[in-house]
Design brief:
- By secondary structure, the chain is of the alpha/beta class.
- The protein has one domain: ATP synthase, F1 complex, gamma subunit (Pyruvate Kinase, Chain: A, domain 1, 3-Layer(aba) Sandwich).
- Helices cover 62% and strands 13% of the residues.
- It contains seven helices and five strands, in the order ααβαβαβαββαα.
- Strands 3-2-1-4-5 form a five-stranded mixed sheet.
- α1 runs antiparallel to α7 and α2 crosses α6.
- It is elongated.
């Protein structure tokens, strides 16, 4: 009977775990829907910026901006988007592996003189990135986390922009998980600075039926230099919200897997419990029959 009691305790524990993972899945699903809605809410702002770029790039003006300046990379800044909380499967581990690949490739491409500043976002990522600290790699304090608001994200983007303009860093990249759907997320590496002309052209191409013609006051290049920081901010906001949505989607999948495994284990334990219970009853009946025969 002690074995039966032990099995009954395990069954209760697994059933409790299954309820917990199911509840966590529901919470993460709600957060994922909220994050995806946030991505959709950013569309009007992003479309407005891209529309302005489409009008500007449609002119014959040659544009110049400090944010477009490509130079020899002696110092590289990498922003890596992770999570503050766990229980999201291999979300952080996959991003960290991608980060190590980028660091190795950058060191191979630019030589031993390269210095890398890493800005980890999220407690889990900060803990993982600490292992990379060396003479080449410096882990910087990041003023945002996964719960930061738009103003804090804007200030951080402005910090990166200013460091690039002041030649403190020569390029800025962002490593994050791009949200495709609730069941699919894709590792992505975005070059934030310098802004590539190809990225601007792709952004402008997303605008449908731009209104033409346009008159630019004071001049197209001045407006272009005013729009580029807006484009930078919109890009960073997209990355941040997609990373958040991907984190919650990964957590939903992880909790679903845990719940399914708990259900499977629960079935196995119930089957084993019933077998032992039947065996115990059979043994007791045989003892009773054996006692009657002895009489």
């Amino acid at each position: 009977m002690s074995t039966l009691r032990e099995l009954k305790g395990r069954i209760g524990s697994v059933a409790s775990t299954q309820k917990t993972t199911s509840a966590m899945k529901m919470i993460s699903s709600a957060k994922m829907v909220k994050a995806v809605a946030q991505v959709q809410r950013l569309l009007p702002y992003r479309n407005m910026v891209h529309g302005l770029l489409a009008h500007l790039l449609g002119t014959d003006v040659e544009f110049s901006s400090p944010l477009l300046e490509e130079r020899e990379v002696a110092r590289l800044a990498i922003v890596v988007m992770g999570s503050d909380d766990g229980l999201c499967g291999a979300f952080n581990m996959n991003i960290f592996k991608q980060l190590t690949t980028i660091v190795d490739e950058a060191c191979a491409a630019h030589g031993k003189q390269l210095r890398i500043d890493i800005y980890p976002v999220g407690k889990k990522m900060r803990k993982a990135v600490a292992k990379l600290a060396s003479k080449t790699v410096t882990v910087q304090e990041t003023p945002i986390d996964t719960r930061s608001n738009g103003d804090q994200l804007h200030d951080f983007t402005e910090l990166l922009r200013q460091r690039f303009v002041d030649h403190e860093v020569d390029a800025v990249k962002v490593v994050y998980m791009h949200y495709v759907s609730s069941s699919r997320q894709r590792l992505s590496v975005e070059q934030l600075l310098p802004i590539s002309p190809q990225a601007l052209s792709e952004a402008a191409a997303t605008v449908k039926n731009p209104c033409e013609p346009c008159l630019f006051e004071p001049d197209a290049n001045t407006i272009f230099n005013s729009v580029l920081p807006l484009h930078l901010r919109a890009t960073m906001q997209d990355i941040f919200t997609e990373s958040t949505a991907s984190e919650q989607a990964s957590r939903v999948m992880a909790m679903q897997t845990a719940s399914d495994n708990a259900a499977e284990l629960l079935d196995e334990l119930n089957l084993e419990y019933n077998k032992l219970r039947q065996q115990s009853i059979t043994t007791e009946l045989l003892d009773i029959l054996g006692g009657q025969v002895e009489r």
